[in-house]
Amino acid sequence: MADDLSMTAGEYVLGTLDVAEQRAFARRLMTDPGAVALVADWQQRLAPLLLTAPDAVVPADMWSRIDMATRPAANDNQPVWRWKIATVAAALLAVVTSGLALRPRPAPPAPIIAQAPQGFAQQIAALSSEGGSPALLVTYDAGSGRMRVVPVNVSPRPGHSLELWVIAGKAAPKSIGLMPKEGAAALSHMKVDPALDTTIAVSVEPIGGSPTGAPTGPVVYSGKMIALSKS
Predict the structure, then answer these.
(1) Hey, where are the domains in the chain?
(2) What are the backbone angles phi and psi of residue 99, rounded to the nearest 5°?
(3) What is the dihedral of CA 35, 32, 34, 160, to 10 degrees?
(4) pTM for this one?
(5) Cα dihedral value 84, 87, 89, 95, nearest 10
(6) Which of 57-66, 139-148, 160-169, 175-184 has the least mean pLDDT?
(7) Which residues are bridge partners to 117 per DSSP?
(8) Which one-letter DSSP state was computed for residue 3?
(9) Residue 160, Ramachandran bin (φ over 0: left; ψ between -120 and 50: alpha; else beta)
(10) Residue 151 contacts by C-beta under 8 Å, 6 or more apart in sequence?
(11) Which of 7, 10, 29, 76 has the most CB atoms less than 10 A away?
(12) 168 vs 120, 159, 173, 192, 199, CA distance in Å?
């Protein structure tokens, strides 16, 4: 099952899921830190391919040729995952040869996520310590400006506060509040530009937060914001 989830996360990043599958997986990202971590891992692994791939004109029949090459025969009784692997492999080939990394397929014209109603998380992040499993799950809705930070596996810090910071691109860390002792943190009037490489981080501070307006203690968790909708 873990391999199936990783495969779906890879297809989600490549844009090869159909509309219904994409919508279902986006819902799963709202509540499953493991799925978020897999998406982040796929993005990190695939992004360098875009930087190394030369510019090229994509043949008009590219996707139809891939579909024909990966479509199972009528009498093929092999498990579904075998042709899914072929689909991902073909998409990866398209990435390397034509610079299509992280772009959705031409059909459908617009991902369903882009038409999500207000209140649907458009960006998400899994915060973790270096090399650790996700400790907090962050969801953000640009329409309402609301951000929610849900603890998943946070180590207690007696006598200290955990302070949240947003780092937009190369800007200095900006405090966005303290984590409550129990439960999730709900933040309003937030602005996160999806065009920037935004990181959410958590530092250990004195009770009540940093006295300087910048992190004074160790940063124990951090994670990149991932855009769920394509613009």
Answers:
(1) 2-113, 116-227
(2) 70, 35
(3) 140
(4) 0.53
(5) -140
(6) 57-66
(7) none
(8) H
(9) beta
(10) 135, 136, 179, 183, 184
(11) 10
(12) 22, 29, 8, 8, 7
Q: Are 176 and 187 in contact (CB under 8 A)?
A: yes
Distance in angstroms (rounded) separating the CA atoms of residues 165 and 186: 14
- CATH class given for the domain over 116-227: mainly beta
> Angle, nearest 10°, between helix axes 33-52 and 2-14?
50
∠ CA 139-164-162, nearest 5°, is 120
In tens, the pLDDT along 150-206 reads 888 888 899 999 999 999 999 999 999 999 888 888 888 888 887 788 999 999 999
If we measure between CA atoms, which residue out of 61, 68, 50 comes closest to residue 14? 50
Q: Whole-angstrom Cα distance, residue 180 to residue 211?
A: 18
Give every CB contact of residue 71 below 8 A, 6+ residues apart in sequence: 83
Omega before 108 within 30 of 0, i.e. cis: yes
- What element of type H or E holds 177? strand 174-178
Separation CA 39–CA 154 (nearest Å): 21
* Count of residues making up the chain: 231
Where b means 16+ CB within 10 Å and e means fewer, 34-44 reads bbbbbbbebbe
Two tokens, residue 123: 């960006």
